[in-house]
From TrEMBL:
Pfam families xref list: ABC_tran
Keywords: ATP-binding, Nucleotide-binding
InterPro entries to which the protein is assigned, alphabetical: ABC_transporter-like_ATP-bd, ABC_transporter-like_CS, P-loop_NTPase
A molecular function (GO) term: ATP binding
Source species taxonomy: Bacteria, Bacillati, Bacillota, Bacilli, Bacillales
Domain of life (superkingdom): Bacteria
Name the record gives this protein: ABC transporter ATP-binding protein
The UniProt record lists the keyword Cell membrane: no
Amino acid sequence: MINLENVSLKYGNTVALNNVSLKLPDQAICGLLGRNGAGKTSLLSLLCAFRRPTSGTITISGENPYESRNIMPQIALIDDDQSEIENAFQAKELIKITAALRPNWDAAYAEKLIKLFEIPVKKKMRDLSHGMRSAVRVIIGLAGQTPITLYDEAYLGMDAAMRKLFISELLSDYTQRPKLILFSTHFVNEMEGLFSETIIINKGQVIAHDDYDNLRSKGTVVTGFSEVVNSFTNGREILSQRVLGRQKEVVLFGELSENDRLAAEKKGLEFSHPSLQDLFIYMTERGGKEE
Ligand SMILES: Nc1ncnc2c1ncn2[C@@H]1O[C@H](COP(=O)(O)OP(=O)(O)OP(=O)(O)O)[C@@H](O)[C@H]1O
Protein backbone atom coordinates (compact mmCIF):
# COMPACT_ATOMS: atom_id res chain seq x y z
CA MET A 1 0.00 0.00 0.00
CA ILE A 2 1.28 3.45 -0.94
CA ASN A 3 0.19 6.34 1.23
CA LEU A 4 0.83 10.00 0.48
CA GLU A 5 -0.22 12.56 3.05
CA ASN A 6 -0.23 16.26 2.24
CA VAL A 7 2.67 15.90 -0.14
CA SER A 8 4.01 18.99 -1.90
CA LEU A 9 6.95 19.27 -4.26
CA LYS A 10 8.52 22.55 -5.28
CA TYR A 11 11.27 23.24 -7.81
CA GLY A 12 12.46 26.67 -6.65
CA ASN A 13 9.34 28.81 -6.93
CA THR A 14 7.43 26.30 -9.07
CA VAL A 15 4.88 24.27 -7.16
CA ALA A 16 4.73 20.96 -9.05
CA LEU A 17 2.59 19.12 -6.47
CA ASN A 18 0.35 20.89 -4.02
CA ASN A 19 -0.80 19.07 -0.91
CA VAL A 20 -1.48 15.71 -2.52
CA SER A 21 -3.01 12.94 -0.40
CA LEU A 22 -3.42 9.58 -2.06
CA LYS A 23 -3.77 5.91 -1.12
CA LEU A 24 -2.93 3.22 -3.65
CA PRO A 25 -3.59 -0.51 -3.19
CA ASP A 26 -1.06 -3.32 -3.69
CA GLN A 27 -2.81 -4.55 -6.81
CA ALA A 28 -4.26 -2.28 -9.48
CA ILE A 29 -3.62 -0.86 -12.90
CA CYS A 30 -3.95 2.78 -12.17
CA GLY A 31 -4.10 5.40 -14.95
CA LEU A 32 -2.41 8.70 -14.13
CA LEU A 33 -3.92 11.39 -16.33
CA GLY A 34 -3.07 15.06 -16.48
CA ARG A 35 -2.37 17.83 -18.97
CA ASN A 36 1.20 18.83 -19.82
CA GLY A 37 2.92 20.15 -16.71
CA ALA A 38 0.18 18.85 -14.38
CA GLY A 39 2.69 17.06 -12.13
CA LYS A 40 2.55 13.41 -13.27
CA THR A 41 6.31 12.91 -13.64
CA SER A 42 6.89 14.76 -10.38
CA LEU A 43 4.53 12.39 -8.58
CA LEU A 44 6.17 9.30 -10.09
CA SER A 45 9.66 10.61 -9.27
CA LEU A 46 8.62 10.90 -5.60
CA LEU A 47 7.22 7.37 -5.57
CA CYS A 48 10.44 5.87 -6.85
CA ALA A 49 12.44 8.08 -4.46
CA PHE A 50 14.25 9.97 -7.20
CA ARG A 51 13.16 13.06 -5.30
CA ARG A 52 12.06 13.90 -1.80
CA PRO A 53 8.88 15.87 -1.15
CA THR A 54 9.28 19.47 -0.03
CA SER A 55 6.68 18.71 2.64
CA GLY A 56 4.34 15.88 3.60
CA THR A 57 4.97 12.15 4.02
CA ILE A 58 5.15 9.15 1.71
CA THR A 59 5.08 5.59 2.97
CA ILE A 60 5.25 2.39 0.97
CA SER A 61 4.23 -0.74 2.90
CA GLY A 62 4.52 1.43 6.01
CA GLU A 63 8.12 2.49 5.35
CA ASN A 64 9.67 5.71 4.17
CA PRO A 65 11.07 4.77 0.72
CA TYR A 66 14.10 7.07 1.11
CA GLU A 67 15.34 5.30 4.17
CA SER A 68 14.53 1.73 3.24
CA ARG A 69 16.80 -0.72 1.45
CA ASN A 70 13.88 -3.16 1.23
CA ILE A 71 11.60 -0.86 -0.67
CA MET A 72 13.80 0.46 -3.44
CA PRO A 73 14.31 -2.86 -5.34
CA GLN A 74 10.52 -3.29 -5.26
CA ILE A 75 9.90 -0.21 -7.44
CA ALA A 76 10.76 0.44 -11.08
CA LEU A 77 10.21 3.56 -13.14
CA ILE A 78 10.00 2.99 -16.88
CA ASP A 79 10.10 6.29 -18.75
CA ASP A 80 11.20 7.83 -22.02
CA ASP A 81 14.72 8.47 -20.72
CA GLN A 82 17.05 9.44 -23.56
CA SER A 83 20.18 9.72 -21.44
CA GLU A 84 23.57 9.35 -23.11
CA ILE A 85 24.63 6.77 -20.54
CA GLU A 86 21.74 4.48 -21.38
CA ASN A 87 22.08 5.08 -25.13
CA ALA A 88 25.72 3.94 -25.09
CA PHE A 89 24.74 0.35 -24.18
CA GLN A 90 23.61 -2.39 -26.52
CA ALA A 91 19.98 -3.32 -25.88
CA LYS A 92 21.05 -6.71 -24.52
CA GLU A 93 23.64 -5.09 -22.22
CA LEU A 94 21.04 -2.70 -20.83
CA ILE A 95 18.65 -5.60 -20.24
CA LYS A 96 21.41 -7.63 -18.53
CA ILE A 97 22.47 -4.75 -16.26
CA THR A 98 18.88 -4.10 -15.24
CA ALA A 99 18.22 -7.80 -14.64
CA ALA A 100 20.98 -7.83 -12.03
CA LEU A 101 19.20 -5.05 -10.12
CA ARG A 102 15.76 -6.66 -10.07
CA PRO A 103 15.28 -9.44 -7.51
CA ASN A 104 12.19 -10.84 -9.29
CA TRP A 105 13.61 -10.68 -12.83
CA ASP A 106 11.96 -13.24 -15.15
CA ALA A 107 14.68 -14.09 -17.69
CA ALA A 108 12.51 -16.46 -19.74
CA TYR A 109 9.80 -13.81 -20.04
CA ALA A 110 12.40 -11.23 -21.13
CA GLU A 111 13.59 -13.59 -23.88
CA LYS A 112 10.01 -14.18 -25.01
CA LEU A 113 9.36 -10.43 -25.16
CA ILE A 114 12.58 -9.73 -27.08
CA LYS A 115 11.37 -12.13 -29.77
CA LEU A 116 7.81 -10.81 -29.67
CA PHE A 117 8.93 -7.19 -30.14
CA GLU A 118 11.64 -8.27 -32.62
CA ILE A 119 14.37 -6.29 -30.86
CA PRO A 120 17.77 -6.30 -32.58
CA VAL A 121 19.46 -6.72 -29.21
CA LYS A 122 23.04 -6.33 -30.43
CA LYS A 123 22.40 -2.74 -31.53
CA LYS A 124 23.29 0.12 -29.23
CA MET A 125 20.27 1.87 -27.77
CA ARG A 126 21.18 5.07 -29.63
CA ASP A 127 21.05 3.18 -32.94
CA LEU A 128 17.55 1.83 -32.36
CA SER A 129 14.46 3.69 -33.55
CA HIS A 130 12.56 5.63 -30.88
CA GLY A 131 9.80 3.00 -30.82
CA MET A 132 12.33 0.17 -30.49
CA ARG A 133 14.10 1.95 -27.60
CA SER A 134 10.72 2.28 -25.89
CA ALA A 135 10.07 -1.42 -26.51
CA VAL A 136 13.35 -2.30 -24.77
CA ARG A 137 12.27 -0.23 -21.78
CA VAL A 138 8.84 -1.79 -21.52
CA ILE A 139 10.44 -5.25 -21.77
CA ILE A 140 12.54 -4.22 -18.77
CA GLY A 141 9.34 -3.07 -17.02
CA LEU A 142 7.47 -6.29 -17.75
CA ALA A 143 10.27 -8.79 -17.08
CA GLY A 144 11.38 -6.92 -13.94
CA GLN A 145 8.27 -8.09 -12.06
CA THR A 146 8.66 -5.33 -9.50
CA PRO A 147 5.64 -5.19 -7.16
CA ILE A 148 5.33 -1.48 -8.01
CA THR A 149 5.94 -0.65 -11.66
CA LEU A 150 5.59 2.93 -12.84
CA TYR A 151 5.27 3.68 -16.56
CA ASP A 152 5.74 7.34 -17.48
CA GLU A 153 4.80 7.78 -21.16
CA ALA A 154 6.92 4.69 -21.67
CA TYR A 155 5.63 3.76 -25.12
CA LEU A 156 6.48 7.02 -26.93
CA GLY A 157 7.51 6.42 -30.52
CA MET A 158 5.88 2.98 -30.64
CA ASP A 159 3.49 2.50 -33.54
CA ALA A 160 -0.12 1.48 -32.93
CA ALA A 161 0.58 -2.24 -33.44
CA MET A 162 3.45 -2.19 -30.97
CA ARG A 163 1.43 -0.27 -28.38
CA LYS A 164 -1.30 -2.87 -28.77
CA LEU A 165 1.22 -5.65 -28.20
CA PHE A 166 2.54 -3.91 -25.09
CA ILE A 167 -0.94 -3.37 -23.63
CA SER A 168 -1.92 -6.94 -24.31
CA GLU A 169 1.25 -8.22 -22.57
CA LEU A 170 0.76 -5.85 -19.65
CA LEU A 171 -2.79 -7.12 -19.16
CA SER A 172 -2.05 -10.82 -19.48
CA ASP A 173 0.97 -10.53 -17.17
CA TYR A 174 -1.10 -8.55 -14.65
CA THR A 175 -3.80 -11.23 -14.70
CA GLN A 176 -1.26 -13.93 -13.86
CA ARG A 177 0.94 -11.88 -11.51
CA PRO A 178 -1.01 -8.91 -10.14
CA LYS A 179 0.96 -5.93 -8.85
CA LEU A 180 0.59 -2.16 -8.63
CA ILE A 181 1.04 -0.53 -12.00
CA LEU A 182 0.87 3.23 -12.35
CA PHE A 183 0.52 4.30 -15.91
CA SER A 184 0.91 7.91 -16.97
CA THR A 185 -0.43 8.58 -20.44
CA HIS A 186 -1.78 11.14 -22.88
CA PHE A 187 -3.34 8.35 -25.02
CA VAL A 188 -6.48 8.33 -22.89
CA ASN A 189 -8.82 6.87 -25.52
CA GLU A 190 -6.47 4.06 -26.37
CA MET A 191 -5.55 3.11 -22.82
CA GLU A 192 -8.67 3.74 -20.78
CA GLY A 193 -9.91 0.14 -20.99
CA LEU A 194 -6.71 -0.89 -19.21
CA PHE A 195 -7.29 1.00 -15.97
CA SER A 196 -8.96 -0.48 -12.92
CA GLU A 197 -8.71 2.97 -11.34
CA THR A 198 -7.79 6.41 -12.54
CA ILE A 199 -6.13 9.42 -10.96
CA ILE A 200 -6.66 12.79 -12.60
CA ILE A 201 -4.10 15.37 -11.64
CA ASN A 202 -4.47 19.03 -12.53
CA LYS A 203 -2.13 21.89 -11.71
CA GLY A 204 -0.35 19.85 -9.05
CA GLN A 205 -3.51 18.60 -7.34
CA VAL A 206 -5.39 15.31 -7.47
CA ILE A 207 -8.86 16.31 -8.65
CA ALA A 208 -10.25 12.78 -9.04
CA HIS A 209 -9.30 9.28 -7.94
CA ASP A 210 -11.87 6.59 -8.51
CA ASP A 211 -12.45 3.29 -10.22
CA TYR A 212 -13.04 3.41 -13.94
CA ASP A 213 -16.81 2.90 -13.90
CA ASN A 214 -17.45 5.36 -11.05
CA LEU A 215 -15.42 8.03 -12.78
CA ARG A 216 -17.19 7.58 -16.09
CA SER A 217 -20.55 7.69 -14.34
CA LYS A 218 -19.78 11.30 -13.35
CA GLY A 219 -20.78 12.24 -16.87
CA THR A 220 -24.04 11.60 -18.74
CA VAL A 221 -24.64 11.54 -22.47
CA VAL A 222 -28.21 12.53 -23.40
CA THR A 223 -29.48 11.72 -26.91
CA GLY A 224 -32.84 12.45 -28.57
CA PHE A 225 -34.72 14.97 -30.67
CA SER A 226 -32.94 18.35 -30.56
CA GLU A 227 -35.83 20.33 -29.01
CA VAL A 228 -36.37 17.76 -26.26
CA VAL A 229 -32.64 17.51 -25.52
CA ASN A 230 -32.37 21.32 -25.44
CA SER A 231 -35.20 21.76 -22.97
CA PHE A 232 -33.83 18.96 -20.75
CA THR A 233 -30.21 20.15 -20.72
CA ASN A 234 -30.96 23.87 -20.42
CA GLY A 235 -29.25 25.26 -17.31
CA ARG A 236 -27.10 22.14 -16.73
CA GLU A 237 -23.32 21.85 -17.02
CA ILE A 238 -22.61 20.89 -20.64
CA LEU A 239 -19.37 19.14 -21.56
CA SER A 240 -19.93 18.92 -25.30
CA GLN A 241 -22.73 18.77 -27.84
CA ARG A 242 -23.30 17.76 -31.45
CA VAL A 243 -26.25 17.73 -33.80
CA LEU A 244 -26.95 14.65 -35.93
CA GLY A 245 -29.79 15.66 -38.31
CA ARG A 246 -32.86 16.19 -36.12
CA GLN A 247 -31.16 14.41 -33.25
CA LYS A 248 -28.79 15.93 -30.75
CA GLU A 249 -26.24 14.45 -28.37
CA VAL A 250 -25.25 16.43 -25.28
CA VAL A 251 -22.67 15.35 -22.72
CA LEU A 252 -23.48 16.63 -19.22
CA PHE A 253 -21.21 16.70 -16.21
CA GLY A 254 -22.68 14.93 -13.21
CA GLU A 255 -25.08 12.08 -12.65
CA LEU A 256 -28.82 12.53 -13.12
CA SER A 257 -31.24 12.01 -10.29
CA GLU A 258 -33.63 9.09 -10.66
CA ASN A 259 -36.54 11.55 -11.08
CA ASP A 260 -34.72 13.42 -13.86
CA ARG A 261 -33.93 10.19 -15.59
CA LEU A 262 -37.51 8.89 -15.45
CA ALA A 263 -38.95 12.21 -16.64
CA ALA A 264 -36.52 12.35 -19.56
CA GLU A 265 -37.09 8.72 -20.52
CA LYS A 266 -40.81 9.47 -20.80
CA LYS A 267 -39.92 12.13 -23.37
CA GLY A 268 -37.94 9.59 -25.40
CA LEU A 269 -34.41 10.63 -24.35
CA GLU A 270 -31.65 8.03 -24.10
CA PHE A 271 -28.66 7.98 -21.71
CA SER A 272 -25.15 6.61 -21.60
CA HIS A 273 -21.79 7.62 -20.09
CA PRO A 274 -19.08 9.62 -21.89
CA SER A 275 -15.62 8.33 -22.57
CA LEU A 276 -12.97 8.85 -19.91
CA GLN A 277 -11.15 11.11 -22.36
CA ASP A 278 -14.12 13.51 -22.71
CA LEU A 279 -14.52 13.67 -18.95
CA PHE A 280 -10.82 14.16 -18.43
CA ILE A 281 -10.66 17.04 -20.91
CA TYR A 282 -13.64 18.70 -19.32
CA MET A 283 -12.46 18.32 -15.74
CA THR A 284 -9.00 19.62 -16.48
CA GLU A 285 -10.19 22.50 -18.66
CA ARG A 286 -12.40 23.88 -15.98
CA GLY A 287 -9.89 22.86 -13.30
CA GLY A 288 -12.80 21.76 -11.16
CA LYS A 289 -12.67 19.37 -8.26
CA GLU A 290 -14.47 16.09 -8.16
CA GLU A 291 -17.70 16.48 -6.23
N1 LIG B 1 13.52 19.90 -12.85
C1 LIG B 1 12.59 20.86 -12.84
N2 LIG B 1 12.90 22.13 -12.50
C2 LIG B 1 11.96 23.09 -12.46
N3 LIG B 1 10.66 22.90 -12.72
C3 LIG B 1 10.27 21.65 -13.06
C4 LIG B 1 11.22 20.58 -13.13
N4 LIG B 1 10.55 19.45 -13.49
C5 LIG B 1 9.25 19.82 -13.64
N5 LIG B 1 9.10 21.13 -13.38
C6 LIG B 1 7.83 21.88 -13.40
O1 LIG B 1 6.93 21.21 -12.52
C7 LIG B 1 5.62 21.18 -13.08
C8 LIG B 1 5.16 19.73 -13.19
O2 LIG B 1 5.97 19.09 -14.17
P1 LIG B 1 5.86 17.53 -14.49
O3 LIG B 1 7.01 17.18 -15.37
O4 LIG B 1 5.71 16.79 -13.22
O5 LIG B 1 4.49 17.49 -15.31
P2 LIG B 1 3.86 16.32 -16.21
O6 LIG B 1 2.44 16.19 -15.80
O7 LIG B 1 4.69 15.10 -16.14
O8 LIG B 1 3.91 16.98 -17.66
P3 LIG B 1 4.04 16.31 -19.15
O9 LIG B 1 2.75 15.61 -19.44
O10 LIG B 1 4.23 17.50 -20.02
O11 LIG B 1 5.22 15.39 -19.14
C9 LIG B 1 5.70 21.93 -14.39
O12 LIG B 1 5.34 23.28 -14.14
C10 LIG B 1 7.16 21.85 -14.77
O13 LIG B 1 7.54 22.98 -15.53
